[in-house]
Amino acid sequence: xxxxxxxxxxxxxxxKMTMPFGKYSGRLLIDLPEAYVVWFSQKGFPKGRLGExxxxxxxxxxxxxxxxxxxxx
Length: 73
Fold this sequence. Notes:
This protein is mostly helical and 73 residues long. 47% of the residues lie in helices and 0% in strands. It is globular and about 25 Å long.
């Protein structure tokens, strides 16, 4: 299986970013439940960096690439 190309610096930033509000406030974005991230994708991601990072988490989770998060934990 080929590993997709991801920006390593972006993945490192993602690994440290926490959800700033809501039910999962304080939880790492990479640890958010998939259903929650899918909900955001349907309702619209927040503007700015948080939205960009949630969109990346969404793509990784729905494509079964969560193994990319393991070395970052």
